[in-house]
Specification:
By secondary structure, the protein is α/β, with parallel strands linked by helices. It has six helices and nine strands. The protein is 30% helix and 29% strand. The relative contact order is 0.20.
């Protein structure tokens, strides 16, 4: 599926917001992708995750792992398309862990998926967790890479779409200097 069609899904579901936003990374931005505006529509989730699964069909994935919260939905739907199991990593005392009896076997082929990539923190947390199990990470898939390809990992990253979204350190933010109100969307606690 073409990148333009992916971005159009974000626009049609009103997931692309413009303004002055405090990101979970602590950075500021003039745009925000509210993934849950997309994830509320099963038809979009099904379509996007089918496309994401296609990128990894040849990798012989055995389990798909996503971080809470949006990653749970994406991991489940991608796993359904790959006909493998799906698990998710939750936060506990500031680190990602498997709960609910989830685990990985040594050498198990793992695909890590998430919704929106900005700094890569959530994905890296899941990578670190999976590596503790000595599983084999075959790739990383995201619906949207808003870093424009700047975030790098030790594993192949395949986004459905990639955009360059401007981010600013708070002390350098031109939107703060203009006096525009700062909005904190999302769910991760900003430190």
């Amino acid at each position: 599926m073409e990148q333009e069609k992916i971005l159009n899904i974000f626009k049609k579901s009103k997931a692309l917001l413009k303004g002055h936003f405090l990101l979970s990374s602590g950075l500021h931005s003039d745009i925000y992708f509210e993934k849950f505006q997309v994830l509320q529509y099963p038809q979009y989730v099904e379509l996007l995750c089918k496309e994401l699964a296609k990128l990894f069909w040849k990798e012989k994935v055995q389990v798909v792992v996503g971080p809470t919260t949006g990653g749970i939905i994406i991991a489940y739907e991608v796993a359904k398309n790959l006909k493998v199991r799906s698990i998710f990593a939750e936060m506990e005392e500031g680190v990602r862990v498997f709960k609910r009896g989830f685990d990985l076997k040594e050498g198990e082929r793992v695909l890590i998926v998430d919704d929106i990539l900005t700094t890569g923190k959530s994905v890296q947390e899941v990578v670190d967790l999976v590596n503790k199990y000595d599983a084999k990470i075959v790739g990383l898939g995201v619906l949207l890479d808003r870093s424009g390809g700047k975030v790098q990992f030790d594993y192949p990253l395949k986004p459905l779409a990639s955009v360059v979204a401007r981010t600013f350190k708070p002390e350098e933010c031109p939107l703060c200097k203009e006096g525009r109100p700062l909005v904190k969307p999302g769910s991760r606690k900003v430190i």
